[in-house]
Amino acid sequence: MEDRPQTNEVINLTAFRGQYSVSTTLSGRDGHKYTLEENGGYDVNGVASHNPAALSRYDTIDSPPSYDFYANTEVFGRTRKLRPSLFQLHSNPEDDSCPPPLYEETSNNKESPDEELADPPLEPTRFGWVQGVMIRCMLNIWGVILYLRLPWITAQAGIGFTWIIILLSSCITGITGLSTSAIATNGKVKGGGTYFLISRSLGPELGGSIGLIFAFANAVAVAMHTVGFAETVQALMQENGSTMVNPINDIRIIGVITITCLLAISLAGMEWESKAQVLFFFVIMVSFANYIVGTIIPAPEEKQAKGFFSYKADIFAANFVPDWRGPGGSFFGMFSIFFPSATGILAGANISGDLKASLLSQPCHRQRSHPPPPPHVFPRDADPNIAIPRGTMLAIFWTTVSYLIISATIGSCVVRDASGFVNHTILMSGSDAARCLGTACKFGWDFSECIQNRTCIYGLSNYYQTMSMVSGFAPLIAAGIFGATLSSALACLVSAPKVFQCLCKDRLYPGIGFFGKGYGKNDEPYRAYLLTYIIAVCFILIAELNTIAPIISNFFLCSYALINFSCFHASITNSPGWRPSFRYYSKWASLVGAVVSVVIMFLLTWWAALIAIGIVLFLLGYVLYKKPSVNWGSSVQASSYNMALNHCVSLNQVDDHIKNYRPQCLVLTGPPSLRPALVDFVGTFTKNHSLMMCGNIITGGTSPDTVDAANSSSHVTWLNKRHIKSFYHGVVASDLRTGAQMLLQGAGLGRIRPNILVMGFKKNWRKCAPTSMENYIGILHDAFDLHYGICVLRMKEGLDLSHHMQAHGNDPSKMKTYIFMMLNPGFEAAAESVLDTRPAVNSTLDLHSLETTPQASTVFQSKQEKKTIDVYWLFDDGGLTLLLPYLLKRKKRWARCKVRVFVGGEIQNIEEQKQELTTLIGKFRLGFHEIQVLPDVNEKPQPEHVKKFEDLIGPYRIQAIQKNGERAGLPSRDSPWTVSDEDIEKNMAKSFRQIRLNEVLQDYSRDAALIIVTMPVGRRGVCPSALYMAWLETLSRDLRPPVLLVRGNQESVLTFYCQ
């Protein structure tokens, strides 16, 4: 290090790169090579070996920030850089020359750097913010309503209310546009439009339901705009005296032919569709100019006969107030017809996958044969995160202005009723003039007769083609109608399949994946196009525009309500992941937009609103039931976290009370899949009632393998698959007891923390090392010291299934991920014959097998027969021994079982003791009515059973150890499991009690479904671990039913008081 520069100098690390270059690669165990590039990061195609000397001097494998480290997409022909792991940065290369492979090899990086790269895939057609968003949205908004219904709505509602309708619609769409902009700028937007935005914000439940509804609404909108086009063509045919069948069927025929042609344009590809949209936009602009010019030109006599008089203040004043006519003549009736014309604001977002991406969102290409594109190819404004907000908001602004202008100008030039007859131009004088009806009287026209008879065929209230009549050149308005209707229909015909395709690819609903297949460079969903075509044709057959428009209003309003709610919900959760670059939105405005949208749904058509909401709830319920395996980081997840956190914190303000006591269990299962019976039993009485946490202790040093094994998600997956409501907590520790201490003291959060330790019984304690037994008993002592209650479950057939998994296809040579676990020293419950043949520690199992192995069935999963739950409440532990069977009885599986409570007593006071215990248990309101006093529980056990007990502890007697040649006089702290004669003498009474209790259990509970016994307590330092283990073995041995040894922490968990 003699060349080390001074610390106060400015160092250019690049200058030293050549002198101290890292020319080596890190070699993983799987044979992959990871090369450190000059500018940081790892190349997966390296060739050299690991050399610790290369990591000295100024070089480091630490990498500067890079786009590749955060992206999850690939760039053709370019090797993706990978961030070095914390283990690689933190570990000493000299200690481990072969670090585990911590980086994944991408599919595109398998060629050698010297090989010639293949030709890149064809770049799909992309659009900028003007052509891809603003023009598309404006064309979709300028639909059939603009030309064919806006003049009629102005006549019905008047200019004042029409402006309110327009502004209210624009307010809803504007707020929705702001919400859409915020959601669209909170991350990279892909294909799927509205569905993608909602599903990735609110989750698959609401996203899936609204995706189906929005796709269906767009398909119906295709029919609406096509029918508008067909109405115009049919009207032109009727004016020229030609017809095919009759007006209704003519509209149907023209509509089906039109949508078939539009389908052909769509199937030709997005490029042709976009060119057609630009043409339609140009035609509409010309038609607008033609209309404005027509309003300024003085009206000839023919147009005056039809009610057009150019700009007149009297006409404006008359048309400013409403004139409701017909059964649908109301404010909300007009609103329901107009609102679909404002619903095209998501046309740009719906093709989000076809928008260009800027260089800021694309990684630089690094290859010889394909240089990076120049900056002008992907301009900054083409980024979907910028294109969607800018294009959408400008489209809303300009279309709103155009609607207001057209409503005001048409209402200032045309009267509501006109006959169309030129001979009505002479205004009578005298009394006849006083009888003239209508605003036209002031301009020398008398349309009184048709007004009185309601036979006027012209005017704003009667003639849908008023804009054509007013314009300077009527065919241009017809062309504008064609352009507006066809462009809107074409936009919806493209939007619906694109949204539906994204929904199909997510596979949230069965049977729809068939329609998600894409074709060509743009991944066109041809099958979804055909489905949209069929739905649109079905609604075209209705052939009535005023009937179709209200149908889709509720669906669009429902979509807008959820978009606004998505923005509000994401904002209110305060999730760090909610960071939209679009700042001009308000969460409260989004909430108002959502509420107003729902209110208007019911004001328009209450039954249609109920149907729409019912469909959403049905689809929502289905996804909630199926629980698809997707994780999009939705705001619902953030909200769940906030709610859970707030509730946990609020519990700190509430003191514990006996009435609210719940057995919160820390279950030492190891990998939960290896002890399903233990998991099922505890899950039975904790499900929907209290806390259950499965603890897994991984023994060994801290390494990536052991940490991954402890934190593997496969354990949680197994629990969820088994429908066990439990947490999982894995720790890495040097030995079993240390890990148990970590769990006992660190598990839980605030008040939600375990108070009961549940373990499996250690059946192989006589065959394992004495230190293993000492650790097992030490865990019990530690739990008592920490004021835990303890439950130990023993089953005749054992609890551990690891030997079964090792015997079925887990080939160690094929394993890529390892679990290191202590199978014998604390959780052991398998058959003794099996235990002798397998390793004591560090057995390995494939993590993937934990998920794929069929679920093992246990006795606790089935419905119990009409048997008994025998409770031996021999010592008062606070009532936990009684509470657990009560909780079991509340479950359907155990409801048929009868609880019998056994207590010790004296033969001369049996009745008195029974009455006393019956009264006490009755006050606890547990429903236990059969209570038996055992007077013979204190008798001496049979000699043969005493002999078995002595055989159990014999190998651990000091005399036996001395005979085996071991050093005599071992200090108790070095061998605390040894049993001396003094220990036997001090604990003689307790030993005889356990032997006698087993005899009683054999007599009374041979056919029980479950036996629950108060567990004896061995004094620390007084009762050797071998003696204590012999007590537990003797008490629970040779019993067919499962045995649960229970000991509370000597604090009351039952009370008969109400406060």
TrEMBL record:
Residues 58-114 form the Amino acid permease N-terminal domain. Gene3D superfamilies: Amino acid/polyamine transporter I. It is found in: Apical cell membrane. The keyword Membrane applies. InterPro entries: AA-permease/SLC12A_dom, AA_permease_N, SLC12_C, SLC12A3, SLC12A_fam. Residues 89-121 are annotated as: Disordered. GO terms for molecular function: ATP binding; sodium:potassium:chloride symporter activity. Residues 132-356, 382-666 form the Amino acid permease/ SLC12A domain. Residues 675-813, 851-1058 form the SLC12A transporter C-terminal domain. It catalyses: chloride(out) + Na(+)(out) = chloride(in) + Na(+)(in). GO terms for biological process: cell volume homeostasis; chloride ion homeostasis; potassium ion homeostasis; potassium ion import across plasma membrane; sodium ion homeostasis. Keywords: ATP-binding, Cell membrane, Chloride, Disulfide bond, Glycoprotein, Ion transport, Membrane, Nucleotide-binding, Phosphoprotein, Sodium, Sodium transport, Symport, Transmembrane, Transmembrane helix, Transport, Ubl conjugation. The chain crosses the membrane at residues 129-148, 160-186, 206-230, 251-270, 276-297, 473-496, 526-543, 555-572, 592-625. Its main location: membrane. One of its GO terms (cellular component) is apical plasma membrane. Homodimer; adopts a domain-swap conformation at the scissor helices connecting the transmembrane domain and C-terminal domain. Interacts with KLHL3. Interacts with IL18R1; this interaction is increased by IL18 treatment. Belongs to the SLC12A transporter family. Electroneutral sodium and chloride ion cotransporter, which acts as a key mediator of sodium and chloride reabsorption in kidney distal convoluted tubules. Also acts as a receptor for the pro-inflammatory cytokine IL18, thereby contributing to IL18-induced cytokine production, including IFNG, IL6, IL18 and CCL2. May act either independently of IL18R1, or in a complex with IL18R1. This is Solute carrier family 12 member 3. It comes from Electrophorus voltai.
